[in-house]
Design brief:
The protein is mainly beta. The protein is built from two helices and 13 strands, in the order E-E-E-E-H-E-E-E-E-E-E-E-E-E-H. It has a single domain, classed as Jelly Rolls, CATH 2.60.120.
């Protein structure tokens, strides 16, 4: 497993070692011992989520204000542009974002710690995204931030207006959102 820090050091890109032969490939998508040894994180993943979306769907920017979620995200079908936004007010990287293209082919994963909002844009005809979380989903603590907030200024590199849920269409700007201290 190769681990690369991003411009926000708490967000990591994880690249598994992949073994190819004439039959196909094999890799460990997660190994607790390797994860803890290589990242130094004692994360206890307790839930796996799987979503499917069609081209140009943008999901996010989502987070839980209580029972915050850390996520390990990967695309198992298709291609997405995955984004993490630091919404920890006391952080030196508050309001900054990082993005990474995750594909079924590159098998990269993005580690998004607690205190971050998360979103992704589907770049392929369709995409399936799997992500592990360290806490259970709690709808009463579910929050969103506007995907195109000018103060965050994410470069989504859109080809057309994205397809959004009502929740994401009506999400507040970062300056008006409930965030972490």
């Amino acid at each position: 497993m190769k681990i690369t820090s991003t411009k926000i050091p708490d967000v990591l890109i994880i690249e598994p070692q992949i073994f190819y032969d004439d039959r196909g490939f094999f890799f460990e998508s997660f190994n607790l011992k390797s994860w803890q040894e290589k990242t130094g994180l004692k994360t206890n993943f307790i839930q796996d989520n799987h979503s499917q979306s069609k081209y140009n769907v943008l999901r996010g920017l989502h987070y839980q204000i209580k029972q915050p979620l850390a996520k390990l995200v990967r695309a198992v079908v298709g291609e997405i542009f995955d984004v993490a936004v630091d919404i920890r007010q006391s952080s030196s990287t508050f309001g900054q974002w990082v993005g990474e293209i995750l594909t079924a082919e590159n098998k990269k994963q993005l580690w998004i710690p607690e205190g971050f909002a998360h979103g992704f844009l589907v770049l392929s005809e369709s995409a399936e995204v799997l992500y592990k979380t360290n806490n259970f989903y709690a709808s009463e603590y579910d929050r969103s931030i506007c995907w195109n907030d000018p103060d965050i200024n994410i470069n989504w590199d859109l080809k057309a207006t994205p397809l959004l849920s009502d929740k994401d269409k009506n999400a507040p700007l970062l300056k008006d959102a409930e965030i972490f201290d």
